[in-house]
């Protein structure tokens, strides 16, 4: 049975935009594992695999179902130890946990505000209604008010990347000479922004821009297989 990766998409099923899905796509490619894509909208997720998840990515690998990008990476490392490592040992797992926390607490909220109307506008009508209702309940503001706050985040976004910038001055990837899952975590966030929003958050000449370009080229240019917004 071929592996199947359920991915979040809008109206255009060829443009998966979830940062967590992109972590998993690169993880599978890193391991050299073939997989098929199954694009779904927000409101389709609870119906997947007899209600197996409320989130994507969701990976079916034979009889095994795994959800959550970090749990999928841990599963792949355990199930395919003979293939290229995603963590490089226990220290790499601990580092990836820290990077994930930093990315989700620092980068994701800002990108979410900047791109919130772009995300909404990319969805099918049924998913637009769900997205507006759920996000406005979560934030206590209209999407338009959230987007207005996001405009002020664009110029300041570069400062959020200082820890990454500091590290990349000494090495080409967070993993050192080669990428590890920690790289895919941050790449997923920035790929999300690249695919869903026309706002350009990285400037040429920045070491983070150069790192992101290297990540786009990984695994036969998997990241570039979806063009920028």
Span between termini: 34 Å
Secondary-structure-derived class: alpha+beta
Q: Helix count?
A: 9
Tell me what the CATH architecture of one domain is: 3-Layer(aba) Sandwich
Written as H for each helix and E for each strand, in order along the chain, the element string is EHEEEHHHHHHHH
Task: Provide the CATH top-level class of one domain.
Answer: Alpha Beta
Which radius of gyration do the C-alpha atoms yield?
17 Å
Q: Which percent range describes the beta-strand content? A: 5-15%
Residue share in helix: 40-55%
Q: Specify the overall morphology.
A: globular
Compute the average pLDDT. Answer: 97
CATH topology name of one domain: Glutaredoxin
Got a strand count? 4
> Which ranges are low-confidence, i.e. pLDDT below 50, for 5 or more consecutive residues?
none
Strand order of the largest sheet: 2-1-3-4
Biggest β-sheet strands, sense, barrel: 4 strands, mixed
Query: CATH superfamily of one domain, called what?
Result: Glutaredoxin
Summarize the structure.
The chain is an alpha+beta fold and 229 residues long. The chain has nine helices and four strands; from the N terminus they run βαβββαααααααα.
Descriptive report:
The protein has 229 residues and is α+β, with helices and mostly antiparallel strands. The chain has a domain at 4-79: Glutaredoxin (3-Layer(aba) Sandwich), CATH 3.40.30.10. The chain is 53% helix and 8% strand. The protein has nine helices and four strands, in the order E-H-E-E-E-H-H-H-H-H-H-H-H. The protein has helices at 19-30, 69-79, 90-122, 125-139, 143-151, 153-156, 162-168, 181-196, 207-221; strands spanning 4-8, 36-40, 58-61, 64-67. Strands 2-1-3-4 form a four-stranded mixed β-sheet, with helices on one face. Helix 1 links the parallel strand 1 and strand 2. Helix 3 runs parallel beside helix 8. The chain is globular. Pfam families: GST_C_7, GST_N_3. It comes from Sinorhizobium numidicum. InterPro entries: Glutathione-S-Trfase_C_sf, Glutathione_S-Trfase_N, GST_UstS-like_C, Thioredoxin-like_sf.
């Amino acid at each position: 049975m071929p592996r199947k990766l359920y991915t979040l998409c809008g109206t255009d099923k060829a443009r998966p935009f979830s940062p967590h899905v992109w972590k998993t796509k690169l993880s599978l490619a890193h391991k050299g594992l073939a997989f098929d894509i199954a694009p779904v909208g927000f409101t389709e997720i609870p119906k997947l695999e007899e209600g197996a998840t409320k989130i994507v990515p969701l990976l079916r690998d034979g009889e095994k179902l795994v959800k959550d990008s970090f749990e999928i990476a841990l599963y792949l490392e355990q199930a395919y130890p003979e293939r290229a490592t995603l963590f490089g040992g226990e220290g790499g797992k601990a580092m990836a946990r820290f990077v994930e926390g930093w990315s989700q607490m620092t980068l994701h909220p800002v990108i979410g505000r900047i791109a919130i109307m772009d995300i909404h506008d990319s969805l099918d009508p049924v998913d637009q209604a769900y997205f507006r209702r759920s996000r406005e309940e979560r934030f206590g503001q209209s999407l338009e008010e959230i987007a207005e706050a996001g405009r002020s985040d664009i110029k300041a976004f570069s400062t959020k990347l200082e820890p990454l910038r500091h590290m990349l001055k000494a090495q080409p990837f967070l993993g050192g000479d080669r990428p590890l899952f920690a790289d895919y975590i941050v790449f997923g966030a920035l790929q999300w922004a690249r695919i869903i929003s026309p706002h350009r958050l990285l400037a040429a000449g920045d070491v983070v821009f150069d790192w992101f370009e290297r990540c786009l080229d990984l695994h036969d240019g998997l990241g570039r297989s979806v063009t920028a917004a």
